Hints:
By secondary structure, the chain is of the alpha+beta class. 21% of the residues lie in helices and 48% in strands. Strands 1, 2, 3, 4, 5, 6, 7 and 8 form an eight-stranded antiparallel sheet that branches. The protein is globular, with a radius of gyration of 14 Å. The termini are close together.
Amino acid sequence: MERVYEFLKKAGTYYLATVEGDQPRVRPFGTVDIFEGKLYIQTGKSKEVSHQIAANPKVEICAFHDGKWIRITGTLARDDRREAKAHMLDNYPELQSMYSPDDNNTEVLYFEHATAVISSFTEAPILVNFTE
């Protein structure tokens, strides 16, 4: 999982795909964290992406960096604990003007089950499985 985290940190921006009804939805994200051995992302509960994940927690992430790309397929679970939210926001102080671990909007989600594949045109794919 550390390799997946490092790839996403270096890429800076990744794209999160969700489903709304029968329509795929994709948007850029940048938050990623490891807390208590789990890979986390962050959003706001008021956003459509949060509602989409609540309705269908199966997601996919894609990012590109240095001639390689990663695809992470898995299921997200919400962690409402203050400690998880604070850990994320401590690592992204620029978000602290919009989010707080004590507000009713900040949402952190972790992958319960996931598979990541790091690919390139010149090397064999690297498969990383991780679960809760």
